[in-house]
Specification:
The structure holds 2 protein chains of 2 kinds. By secondary structure, chain A is of the alpha+beta class. Chain A contains 8 helices and 20 strands. In chain B, helix 3 crosses helix 7. Chains A and B meet through strand 6 and helix 2 of A and helix 8 and helix 9 of B.
């Protein structure tokens, strides 16, 4: 089977603002795809167009090869979980879950069975006669989920569904939603601004900024090989070193910073010598080098500096190191038995492998 | 018991100190409500000895029972027509852009500031035989002779509806403002048409506003006086008009008092019915959504 959902050159304007700007996207059956981006990046507008609450100004949306660009929301067969759950406050849990089935004129005995099954699926059996205001946030979230999947929608949309929950519950629901998605083999399009959520749940992530998809890839690829500065900055932490391309030698390229530091990165052929680039290095990819460690002999990006600051974050320590040239770099070292006792103001040598420095335009 | 009373003086008892704080409120309540109502009750029952003759006279005279019936009829009809006009206004305002919404809310509020008398006289100008409506209809050749739009039930209904609409718009509007519009999106997403979304989600959730607005307007209508006097004919006179005639024209205070008590009791009955089925606390916005 081909693509289940396709967005083809979709644009949406609000006044003069291009909320969504020429977005194309295709999603496979059973895929968990996340739209990730800062607020105002167009991810919710994209979701609203897929749900049918907004009609694109340009482009088309295909669901299983049918053009649904202008089809009314109630005729799309796409489920949605809203940020604030949007449970009907005047209906019991059972009536809430039965609502989509009643709209589809499902016979009563089938509705009853489907509601019971859906409640078991979200692990809240026996909650039929409660009202939404009698439930906790997490329980409301589960009921909203049950209501959105009970009519077996072709696609499930989720708009920041965990935003209102506290951290512990959020982490728990994250796994549960993922397991549910896998066991039901349902396609999910998930909107969030929380990168941790996106990285842990998604098969693929579309990073959005200013109405455009700036990179669409697997979580690992996004983290390890960001395609541009925005993605490198948005996903995880990075050190950025600005400089010019100095030379390319075999499979490596050298970048020279304004301060005169020469940094080797994996071969970069998107820019010629002399062009301005930034080099991104993840703090946890930088090692502290000691004279007796023989596994680091092949590291050619090797710099000495002074520890300016040490930040303890529980599972790791972050050393803020000023390099000789006046550049400050964060180094993240996992806490463990072998952590050496560095002091603020002490000298230190740090380094990273060529492949961990990513040149970006 | 760990609590040990050190003094029994009245002043130190908490209940007594709390009572002092309530006294001003009780005083106001007494002067403004309890005293006038009881004096009316007493006037209707003693003249000078205890008698029920004024009440008996009311129920024995067919005219008065008919007026009571007409009062209810007009009150129900004008409440319904204010609902029919007011509900769509509130519905549209809820969904309007803030600028438009504020303009119309201001316009509705302004109508509170124009005297009832002025508004009713305006309707006389509009509805009379040579008024705007009849002139236009005759000019267009739609009618041969002018319609009788005044001094009948139609005139009273128009006048009362006009006055009641703002009172019905605001409670419904404020309840609607508390309804998350995402609920309508959710209903549509789950397969409901616009019509089903309205009847199964938007309308039931706005019921507390309808109940509050309707109760307010209905109770106002029961005691309404100016509109039936100005725009109604002899057949549209309501209980308040009778009271006015008894007091001003006939100086029959005891019977006027009896009529007032009957009106008050009728109002309380409506209130009790509302409370039984909808709960008065909803009037002050007690419903959690």
């Amino acid at each position: 089977m081909g693509h289940q959902l396709e967005l083809i050159n979709v644009s949406k304007l609000f006044g003069d603002v291009r909320a969504v700007d020429n977005v194309s996207l295709s999603i496979q059956h059973g895929e968990f795809l996340t739209l990730l981006g800062p607020s105002g990046s167009g991810k919710t507008t994209s979701l609203n167009m897929i749900a049918g609450f907004e009609i694109p100004d340009r482009g088309e949306i295909l669901l299983e090869n049918d053009d649904i660009t202008t089809v009314a929301p109630n005729n799309r067969g796409i489920g949605m979980v809203f940020q604030n759950y949007a449970l009907f406050p005047h209906m019991t849990v059972s009536d809430n879950i039965a609502f989509p089935l009643k709209m589809r004129k499902t016979p009563g005995n089938k509705i009853h069975r489907a509601v019971t099954e859906a409640l078991e699926l979200v692990k809240l059996p026996g909650f039929e006669s409660r009202y939404p205001h009698q439930l906790s946030g997490g329980q409301q979230q589960r009921i909203a989920l049950a209501r959105a999947i009970v009519f077996k929608p072709k696609i499930l949309l989720m708009d920041e569904p965990l935003g209102a929950l506290d951290k512990k519950l959020r982490d728990h629901m994250r796994l549960e939603i993922k397991h549910l998605q896998e066991s039901l083999d349902i396609t999910v399009i998930y909107v969030t601004h929380d990168q941790e959520e996106a990285l842990t749940m998604s098969d693929r992530i579309a990073i959005m900024n200013e109405g455009k998809i700036v990179q669409l890839d697997t979580p690992v690829a996004l983290y390890e090989t960001p395609a541009n500065l925005f993605v490198a900055d948005f996903i995880g932490e990075s050190n950025f070193l600005k400089g010019q391309i100095a030379e390319t030698n075999g499979d490596r390229t050298a970048v020279e910073t304004e301060e005169g530091l020469k940094v080797w990165v994996a071969k970069f052929n998107q820019a010629d010598a002399g062009e301005e680039v930034s080099v991104a290095i993840r703090p946890e990819k930088i090692q502290i080098l000691t004279a007796d460690a023989d596994d680091s002999n092949d590291i050619i990006n090797r710099f000495s500096g002074r520890i300016e600051e040490i930040v303890y974050v529980g599972e790791a320590r972050i050393y803020r190191v000023s390099l000789a040239a006046g550049i400050i770099v964060d180094v993240k070292v996992q806490s463990g038995p072998s952590v050496q006792n560095f002091k603020i103001g002490g000298d230190i040598t740090i380094g990273w492998r060529t492949r961990h420095g990513i040149a970006l335009k | 018991m760990h609590y040990k009373s050190t003094t029994s003086s009245l002043w130190h008892r908490q209940s007594f100190r709390q009572l002092i704080l309530v006294i001003p409120a009780l005083l106001a309540l007494f002067l403004l409500f309890i005293y006038p109502i009881s004096s009316i009750l007493i006037k209707s029952l003693f003249s000078p000895d205890f008698t029920l003759k004024h009440y008996l006279y009311f129920f024995e005279t067919p005219l008065y029972s008919r007026v009571l019936w007409i009062t209810f009829q007009i009150s129900v009809l004008s409440t319904l027509s204010a609902l029919i006009v007011g509900y769509p206004i509130a519905y549209v305002l809820r969904r309007a852009k803030p600028g438009i919404r504020n303009f119309f809310l201001l316009a509705i509020t302004l109508s509170f500031m124009i005297s009832l008398l002025v508004r009713n006289y305006s309707w006389i100008i509009v509805l009379q035989r040579s008024g705007v409506v009849n002139t236009v209809l005759t000019y267009l050749g739609l009618v041969d002779s002018p319609f009788k739009l005044l001094h009948n039930k139609f005139g009273v209904m128009v006048g009362m509806t006009h006055i009641f609409v703002p009172y019905i718009v605001f409670p419904i509007y404020s309840v609607m403002m508390g309804i998350d519009l995402n609920l309508e999106k959710a209903a549509q997403n789950l397969g409901a048409t616009r019509w089903q979304t309205f009847w199964r989600v938007s309308f039931p959730l706005s019921l507390p506003g309808i109940g509050a607005g309707a109760l307010l307007v209905f109770i106002m209508a029961l005691g309404f006086f100016i509109t039936p006097a100005l725009l109604g004919g002899r057949k549209e006179q309501m209980i308040s008009n009778l009271i006015q005639i008894q007091v001003v024209d006939l100086l029959n205070w005891p019977f006027a008092s009896a009529l007032s008590v009957i009106l008050l009791l009728a109002t309380l009955v409506v209130f009790a019915i509302y409370n039984r089925y909808l709960g008065v606390e909803r009037l002050w916005g007690g419903l959690k959504t």
